[in-house]
Design brief:
22% strand, 11 strands, 3-stranded mixed beta sheet, 320 residues, extended
Length: 320
Amino acid sequence: MRLTLKRIIHFIVFLFIALTVVSFPSFIHAETQVSISASDNLVFIGDMITVKIIVKTTDDIGEIKVNSKENPFDIVREFPTEKHRQNEYSVFEKKMTVMFFKVGEFNIGPFDIDLLKSGKVFLSKPTNSIPVTVKTTLKSEDKDIKPLKDLIEIKGNPVLIIGLGMLLIGLIIGIILLIWYLKRRKQRVPKPQAPPLSPLEELELHINKLWEKKLFETGKAKLHFIELTQLMKHFLSRQYGFNAEDLTTYETLYFLKQYEKDTALLDNMGYTFDTSDLVKFAKFEPDTPVMLRVFNTLKEVIEIYKRRLMASVVNAEEPR
């Protein structure tokens, strides 16, 4: 059979149609794109970086879940996922605030994104990664270490010094034993203990005592916020029953959202913890307006709990 030009053209057309039919499912398959971006890639230690994750898909996806392995940064704040339509795509936007506390070259990402349909993982896709350079704010003169001074020669008889030391130790032990013996003889009647304060009463009392110390006025703002973080986490442990004192700020706020739905309360708690972390880790120097806002935020938190407590008492007293 002779191959004419007409037969060759018919064969090419047939081959094109066949390939189109075979690959048709791949053309109609849903398209999914994931990407991340960062507000900065050259920062100092403690600088906040806003990371945005965008997922575009034509699948009917209900929500996304961001997974990551061990990160060289801390996630200090995570925002709710936003979802909207863009032509034939469903677009998900996830924002988070991260901070680096080490100097060097790092990467943000890649993250594994799970696309959930009816609560189950429908598809997983990795994002790209973003290189970040982290520098220190220290100057060259701050890194100098002065040499140690020469040892001071102590003259005297070592045997006499050891003997005096043993005598002093014996005297101290004798005084301790005497005090213990006198306390045992007194046999004091234990005083009745007052009922423990409620978590809210304890929080309000400790906050007022902390501000009365005036650590901020004496240049000890970092110590002030260390104590503030401790008493806030102790309150959350008593109020909600999870071990906030052993958790990071991000973990504490994450568990708080499981128990608390009041957005005003969550926002105030988030601002207090975020400001505390900036002062403790990022060398942020708060001024008087910032300290006043933190104090007023804590007052508002206490008032929210008090109003809730009053409402529960009134509801309990109303006849059914």
